[in-house]
Amino acid sequence: MLRAKIIYSVIIVLCLGIIAWSTYYTLGGFDPIEVYVMEGNERTVIGKEYIESYDYEEFHARMQETIAQIDSGRLRGMLTVVVYENENIGKDSIHYFLGASQDVIKNVVRLPAGYEYKEFRTEKVFKIFITQHFLVRPSPEEINELAQIKAIEEGVILQPLSFELYYEDQSLSVERWAQ
User: Fold this and answer.
1) What is the pLDDT along the chain (179 residues), one digit of tens a residue?
2) Which of 85, 141, 150, 174 has the smallest C-beta neighbourhood within 10 Å, fewest atoms?
3) What is the pTM of this model?
């Protein structure tokens, strides 16, 4: 009787392990993450700036509002979050600019009410493509650390901000720009 319980327990643990491994694999958990070094460019982001305590629900609601602006055609471009490294606001707060990015502002006739635009320039971009599901993708700290290591290898100092560009297939790219 005891032997049968042990055998069943081993089978259950083995099945759960296989299910966990296959789920992690299916969600892209084993996909490699590489930092690509690219030529610099300029980017215009039309959006709104926020400095507030970090609340995922509120951040998600603001993203949905911006997506609605893009879908309606009032904003054109790719959903973009510019996250600023700001040590003065505390660890539980976040400083970000949320909107749509474009290569040139010439396509914009007028800005939606409450929106502003910011222009960014750099000579070198460190870009990381993230295809994993959000449940298994690396944390923002791990992503920034990878970009920082690559920048050190290249002998470059990074700007105190990062770009998160969200694609329609639920993947994203994170860019760190050189100063």
Assistant:
1) 788 899 999 999 999 999 999 999 988 888 888 999 998 888 889 999 998 888 889 999 999 999 998 888 888 889 999 999 888 887 788 899 999 987 655 555 677 788 888 989 899 999 999 988 888 888 888 998 999 999 999 999 999 999 999 988 888 899 999 98
2) 141
3) 0.81
